[in-house]
Design goal:
This protein has 276 residues and is an alpha+beta fold. The protein folds into 2 domains: 70 residues, lambda repressor-like DNA-binding domains (434 Repressor (Amino-terminal Domain), Orthogonal Bundle), CATH 1.10.260; 135 residues, Beta-Lactamase (2-Layer Sandwich). 53% of the residues lie in helices and 11% in strands. The protein is built from 13 helices and 5 strands. Strands 2-1-5-4-3 form a 5-stranded antiparallel β-sheet, with helices on both faces. A hairpin with a 2-residue loop joins β3 and β4. The radius of gyration is 23 Å and the shape is elongated. It starts with a helix and ends with a helix.
Length: 276
């Protein structure tokens, strides 16, 4: 009975989070409204197939779908491998290829909570230019680095606009996955100085074009970048579903030149190290 109650409360919570009526959920899951009502009351125990249909109708991420299965007394369906597992080798090769193709411009791979998993040389050179050398093996959260007061903020001239947009995406993530981890990330980000004020005010519109850039400035060097975020198509693993690949592109010719110059200097330095 306790298991049924746990499943029932989870189902009801997710339905309300998705702003669906019982009738709407029933239609999406190809069942009756009465059946959904009985499931939410704990009067009916769902089949494994029904849990999966409800998960799909609610657009649950794999991790949350597994949790719903466990609450109903079934084994998880979706696997979760470490990124370095043999099973994910084809995906790793694809990630390596994408990062390499983005050179000399930055590209990174992050998880659902914006923890840095992988970066190309363009990204390393950008970060080292702005904040100095990165300690090998150091855990880096790009959300904290962007929103917090001491890492990227001093060099990001349009920090308010960028952070207002970025934090709204974290709010959307928190709504989408309903996890305590994403909620904790959102709370941490909004707790940084100035963030709540930025979110509460109406920022003046900027008319730079159709894409919001990030304007960095340090030591007389100006860099204007915009980003694209990609995910892997048709993932069948939790780790892969939660990956994001963020690529940075120059907004102007000068920014492109700076990154190409950095790359050329890196190549030249490598030649000098190899030559006696």
């Amino acid at each position: 009975m306790e298991r049924q109650s746990t499943f029932a409360s989870r189902l009801s919570r997710w339905r309300k989070k998705r702003a669906l009526s019982q009738l709407q959920l029933a239609f999406a899951a190809s069942c009756s409204q009465r059946h959904v009502s009985f499931l939410e009351l704990g009067r009916t125990q769902p089949s494994r197939e029904m849990v999966l249909r409800l998960s799909a109708a609610l657009d649950l991420p794999f991790r949350q779908s597994n949790e719903l299965l466990l609450a109903a007394g079934f084994a998880p369906v979706w696997s979760e491998n470490n990124l370095d597992a043999d099973a994910l080798a084809p995906a790793r090769q694809a990630l390596d290829y994408m990062l390499a193709q983005q050179e000399p411009f930055p590209a990174v791979v992050v998880d659902r909570r914006w923890n840095l998993l992988q970066a190309n040389l363009g990204a390393v050179r950008l970060v080292e230019f702005l904040v100095g050398p990165i300690e090998e093996g150091a855990a880096i959260n790009l959300a904290d680095a962007l929103v917090g007061p001491d890492v990227l903020r001093p060099y990001l001239s349009n920090w308010e606009h960028v952070v207002a947009y970025f934090v709204r995406t974290i709010e959307a993530d928190a709504t989408a996955d309903g996890s305590s981890e994403t909620a904790a990330l959102l709370e941490r980000l909004t707790g940084y100085p100035g963030v709540r004020a930025v979110l509460s005010e109406i920022l003046p519109a900027i008319s730079e074009g159709p894409i919001l850039p990030m304007h960095f400035k340090k030591d007389g060097v100006r860099l204007s970048l915009f980003t694209s975020i990609a995910t892997l198509g048709t993932p069948q693993d939790i780790t892969l579903q939660e990956l994001r690949i963020e690529s940075f592109f120059p907004m102007d010719a000068e920014t492109g030149r700076v990154f190409r110059d950095w790359a050329a200097k890196h190549v030249e330095a490598g030649r000098r190290r190899r030559c006696p």
